[in-house]
Predict the 3D structure of the following.
Amino acid sequence: MNSERIEFDAVVVGAGLAGAAAAMVMARGGLNVALVERGQKPGGKNYFGGAIYTHAIAELVPDFMDRRPPFERPVTEAGFWFLARDGLTRMTVQGGELNADPADAYITLRANFDAWWAQQAQEAGALLIPKTTVVDFLRKQTGEVVGVVTDRPQGEIHAPVVIICEGVNNLLAQKLGLIDHDLEPATLALAFKQVISLPMETINARFGLQDEHHGLAASVLGDVSLGLPGMGFVYTNKGSISIGLGMMLDQLAEYRLRPYDILQRYLDHPAIAPLVQGGQLLEYGGHLIPEGGYHAMPKLYTDGAMIAGDAAAMVNALHWEGTNMAIIAGKLAAETALEAHSRGDFTARVMSRYEDRLGEGFILKDLKQYRGFSRFLETHPQFMDVYPNFLNDSLGQFFSAYGKPKKELFNGMLGALTNRRSLIRAAGDIVSMARSVMGW
Amino acid sequence: MFHALVAIKQVPDTTNIRIDPDTGNLVREGVPAIMNPYDAHALAAAVEWKRKLNGRVTVISMGPPSFTTTLREAIELGADRAILLSDRKFAGADTLATSYVLAEVIRAVHSDDPVDLIFFGKQAIDGDTAQVGPGVAVRLDFPIVTYAVNVRAIDLNEATIVVERKTERWTEVVETPLPALVTCEKEIAAIPFAPLPDLIKSLRYDPEIWTLAGPVEFAADEIGVRGSPTIVYQMGTPPLPEAGEKINTREAGVSATLDLVFKKAEDAGVLDAMLGGAQ
């Protein structure tokens, strides 16, 4: 029987965006890296809307466009759709910044993208170990992490540093005491979507896209989430549409809502149904998103270990950011691991440099600034109901000829708002929205 | 030291396969490739005996370079060495040409490092012929036990093996001299969850690729399309069987129902066959 001791310079738990980034950077730094993935393939367990931002990719793989990433379309049009009960107001931007080449963001499917991303780590020399779940840590008597235990027979891997990128279900972070409680439904969104196949030409025509090198990413507010906090999304893939929404898990539970019912209602909306009509359902899936923000983050390091990505709640819900944070955080953790190796010191003293690095960039700054946003929509349900309907009604009136004096029209439009929400309250909503976004 | 050889095939996962209704061909696009399940169970049995007898396992396969994925999986499952026969000229082989190539390869492996026992799956789930294993046994002049469900004992000193094989009526227990060839049912062994060292070994393992250039010499007219007399006349989807006639025994009564069943069997000329199976 085999009884050899398995040793690496570093172990990364999870071959998602953060994990593969960490493995890539450490392997390039000359470390012997094991990248352990529970799925059959990297990305097999991952899901998002979604579009991925290129600034983070370029930071690790500057020539990424030459390496044929499995992108669907660049995001050349982005913005908000306000869905009223019987109408839709679109506020999207195209051109300008969005015409950059390569684009700032590309629409993609995670099963494809993550496999490609992990491939970059493998080419850098990391060993991808699939179909293997890390269940615990190897620790010295004094507590320092010195490796991991997997679910396989003879499944111990020894390494002086472990980077935990296990995703939203942070069982290992709990096991290590980086966070002292289990997942809380109030800090989790459940996002679910359908991927609906349509001919490329049909997608271009329905969404007003020039060709398959143009794509739309829209955040949908309003009559999507039954007046509860939540946001919908629409992304145009090459030959399919990704359409879905995210809602807070505690509220889905409290109101006993079934995700597929809500999604079906959204797809049946008179302004949405024609967009997906005749399409064939390719995929239906969902995933948890850690939207607790800054306050929900675990401790980011301990002796011999660091944590990055969804496992560390690195998500900015309003801006659909998370994948970029995961990649950059993975990179910063890897740089800290390299520093630890060169110093021969894997204690928390050196690992704390990871948090310093995160503090220097956008990740911790943004998460701090948006710390109040995670519950904003919950305390301001008018953003899901009053305003989208007001916007739709008033714009509808503005562009109609009623054969009445315009003064009456404007009074009517104002009334459409004040019937629903007093002007003082509306002003207050704008201020508190700004506060939560600006972090005041 | 015990040396087992396992022949494996990579097949499309037929649990979610589709047939193009127009051409009658398999739609291979997007269908995952897997190790033929019967072969995987045969390999698991070989590895069990390797561990019991402190031996080693060689796997061989014939197919395009993409088959290396499956050969790596064989290493993960406990094989020590993997050889892939891969050459464009081998393509288009039927069971006759395939058994020729595999037999020649086994002969070559055997002459360097004598093989005690050869494992095949009972058949591949794509072709379902169950011919290659027996074909190889005949070419090598090895005794063969088909439809094996259990290797009860291997005695290397006496060079014998005791195998249980499944038939429609009963289980036969067969003793035969080694070297021998068995074709296996799934019951032969459970596929294990591989130990981590074996998985890591497989990730770093590159199967040996043998081509027409060597190390084994092949007769040009016995390989590939030239060596394959089989002609596929037509492929298609069989019509779905019609739903059978249903009789409610509570309404019709049990004995009346039985009479009716016997009458129908007699009319169809299958009554004797039907009763022949009953004791």
Q: What stands out?
A: Chain B has a mean pLDDT of 90. The first strand of chain B starts at residue 3 and ends at 7. The longest helix of chain B spans residues 95-112. Chain B has eight helices and 13 strands.
